[in-house]
Amino acid sequence: MTTVLRRTCAADRTSRRRASSYADVVKTIAVPEHTTRRVVRRARFACTLYRLVDEEAVFERMAAHREAHWIASRNCAAYILDGGAIQRSDGDGEPSSTSGEPMLEAMRGHGLTDVLAMMTVDYTGVEFSAADRARTYSAVVTQAISEAGTAASDS
């Protein structure tokens, strides 16, 4: 008797695990829009969550948000759409993996879909290490999700 073994790479296992976690429970925020503000070491962070269903609406909302908050130091974004099939982040000039990716991870951790998170930051001369920046972005998004509440998604 011959046994055929199929070799899989780590990326295959990760993508399969991520897809199944979104298939089990799909949630979105309970309100159409919610803003949470936090001050950390004199730097002001404002995370606004938007419930959106397609990428075109996401791009329009991102442009409007950036236009409204043009004077801020940074306007970072992260979004998850279509049951987790589309996941993107934009750090708006922050060092790699210190803003957009932690925001996206916080959203993944709550199993959200059809949500855009925009983080408006005014540093006011305060220096943050990469680790402090990543922790702060993640914490503010998590706080915003908790305050907004979650509900079952239609996706």
Report on this structure.
- With 155 residues, the protein is α+β, with helices and mostly antiparallel strands.
- The protein has a single domain (25-152), classed as 2-Layer Sandwich (Ribosomal Protein S5, domain 2), CATH 3.30.230.
- It is 37% helix and 28% strand.
- The chain has helices at 10-24, 55-68, 100-109, 130-148, and strands spanning 27-29, 33-40, 43-51, 74-81, 86-90, 115-122, 150-152.
- The protein has a five-stranded antiparallel beta sheet with strand order 2-3-6-4-5, sandwiched between helices. Strands 1-7 form a two-stranded antiparallel sheet.
- A hairpin with a 2-residue loop joins strand 2 and strand 3.
- The termini are far apart.
At a glance:
This protein is of the alpha+beta class. It contains four helices and seven strands.
Fraction of helical residues: 25-40%
**Widest sheet: strand order?**
2-3-6-4-5
Name of the CATH class:
Alpha Beta
Q: How much is the radius of gyration in Å?
A: 17 Å
Largest sheet: 5 strands, antiparallel
Domain tally: 1
Rounded to the nearest angstrom, the distance between the terminal CA atoms is 45 Å
Report low-confidence residues grouped into runs of 5 or more: 1-23
Structural class: alpha+beta
Count of helical regions: 4
Number of beta strands: 7
CATH homology-level superfamily: Impact, N-terminal domain
What are the key terms here?
single chain; two-stranded antiparallel ribbon; 155 residues; five-stranded antiparallel sheet; 7 strands; 37% helix; alpha+beta; disordered N terminus; 4 helices; 28% strand
Topology:
Layout: H1 10-24, E1 27-29, E2 33-40, E3 43-51, H2 55-68, E4 74-81, E5 86-90, H3 100-109, E6 115-122, H4 130-148, E7 150-152
Antiparallel strand pairs: 1-7, 2-3, 3-6, 4-5, 4-6
Helix pairs in contact: 3-4
